[in-house]
Protein backbone atom coordinates (compact mmCIF):
# COMPACT_ATOMS: atom_id res chain seq x y z
CA UNK A 1 0.00 0.00 0.00
CA UNK A 2 1.27 3.48 -0.86
CA UNK A 3 1.29 6.27 1.63
CA UNK A 4 0.82 9.79 0.35
CA UNK A 5 3.10 12.19 2.19
CA UNK A 6 1.84 15.61 3.32
CA UNK A 7 4.16 17.23 0.76
CA UNK A 8 2.79 15.04 -2.05
CA UNK A 9 -0.76 15.95 -1.04
CA UNK A 10 0.19 19.64 -1.10
CA UNK A 11 1.61 19.25 -4.61
CA UNK A 12 -1.70 17.88 -5.80
CA UNK A 13 -3.73 20.60 -4.05
CA UNK A 14 -1.45 23.25 -5.53
CA UNK A 15 -1.82 21.81 -9.03
CA UNK A 16 -5.60 21.71 -8.65
CA UNK A 17 -5.64 25.24 -7.20
CA UNK A 18 -3.77 26.46 -10.26
CA UNK A 19 -6.27 24.69 -12.52
CA UNK A 20 -3.53 22.67 -14.20
CA UNK A 21 -3.73 19.16 -15.53
CA UNK A 22 -0.95 16.79 -14.51
CA UNK A 23 0.74 17.09 -17.93
CA UNK A 24 0.55 20.90 -17.87
CA UNK A 25 1.85 21.18 -14.30
CA UNK A 26 4.59 18.62 -15.01
CA UNK A 27 5.66 20.68 -18.01
CA UNK A 28 5.85 23.79 -15.81
CA UNK A 29 8.09 21.85 -13.42
CA UNK A 30 10.20 20.26 -16.14
CA UNK A 31 9.38 16.69 -15.16
CA UNK A 32 7.52 13.88 -16.93
CA UNK A 33 3.79 13.66 -16.13
CA UNK A 34 4.25 10.11 -14.87
CA UNK A 35 6.79 11.34 -12.33
CA UNK A 36 4.33 13.93 -11.02
CA UNK A 37 1.63 11.26 -10.86
CA UNK A 38 3.97 9.00 -8.89
CA UNK A 39 4.65 11.80 -6.39
CA UNK A 40 0.97 12.66 -6.02
CA UNK A 41 -0.11 9.05 -5.52
CA UNK A 42 2.68 8.14 -3.14
CA UNK A 43 4.46 5.73 -5.47
CA UNK A 44 7.65 7.73 -4.92
CA UNK A 45 8.53 8.43 -1.33
CA UNK A 46 10.53 11.61 -1.58
CA UNK A 47 10.09 14.73 -3.63
CA UNK A 48 13.61 15.94 -4.41
CA UNK A 49 14.91 19.27 -3.21
CA UNK A 50 15.77 20.13 -6.81
CA UNK A 51 12.06 20.12 -7.65
CA UNK A 52 11.31 22.44 -4.74
CA UNK A 53 14.07 24.75 -5.98
CA UNK A 54 12.48 24.73 -9.42
CA UNK A 55 9.23 25.95 -7.88
CA UNK A 56 11.02 28.59 -5.84
CA UNK A 57 12.85 29.87 -8.92
CA UNK A 58 9.79 30.12 -11.18
CA UNK A 59 8.14 33.53 -10.77
CA UNK A 60 4.66 32.12 -11.35
CA UNK A 61 5.16 29.49 -8.62
CA UNK A 62 7.53 31.14 -6.14
CA UNK A 63 4.70 32.41 -3.93
CA UNK A 64 3.70 28.80 -3.28
CA UNK A 65 7.11 27.60 -2.07
CA UNK A 66 6.37 28.52 1.55
CA UNK A 67 3.05 26.70 1.37
CA UNK A 68 4.81 23.53 0.26
CA UNK A 69 7.62 23.72 2.81
CA UNK A 70 6.04 25.16 5.93
CA UNK A 71 3.40 23.15 7.76
CA UNK A 72 2.67 26.16 9.97
CA UNK A 73 1.90 28.50 7.05
CA UNK A 74 -1.80 29.33 6.99
CA UNK A 75 -3.13 27.63 3.88
CA UNK A 76 -6.10 29.95 3.56
CA UNK A 77 -3.73 32.81 2.69
CA UNK A 78 -3.26 31.09 -0.67
CA UNK A 79 -6.86 30.07 -1.13
CA UNK A 80 -5.92 26.42 -0.64
CA UNK A 81 -7.80 24.49 1.99
CA UNK A 82 -6.01 21.75 3.89
CA UNK A 83 -8.01 18.56 4.40
CA UNK A 84 -7.17 18.54 8.13
CA UNK A 85 -8.51 22.06 8.54
CA UNK A 86 -11.73 21.08 6.78
CA UNK A 87 -12.47 18.37 9.35
TrEMBL record:
<dbReference type="Pfam" id="PF01381">
    <property type="entry name" value="HTH_3"/>
</dbReference>
<dbReference type="InterPro" id="IPR001387">
    <property type="entry name" value="Cro/C1-type_HTH"/>
</dbReference>
<protein>
    <submittedName>
        <fullName>Helix-turn-helix transcriptional regulator</fullName>
    </submittedName>
</protein>
<feature type="domain" description="HTH cro/C1-type">
    <location>
        <begin position="11"/>
        <end position="45"/>
    </location>
</feature>
<dbReference type="InterPro" id="IPR010982">
    <property type="entry name" value="Lambda_DNA-bd_dom_sf"/>
</dbReference>
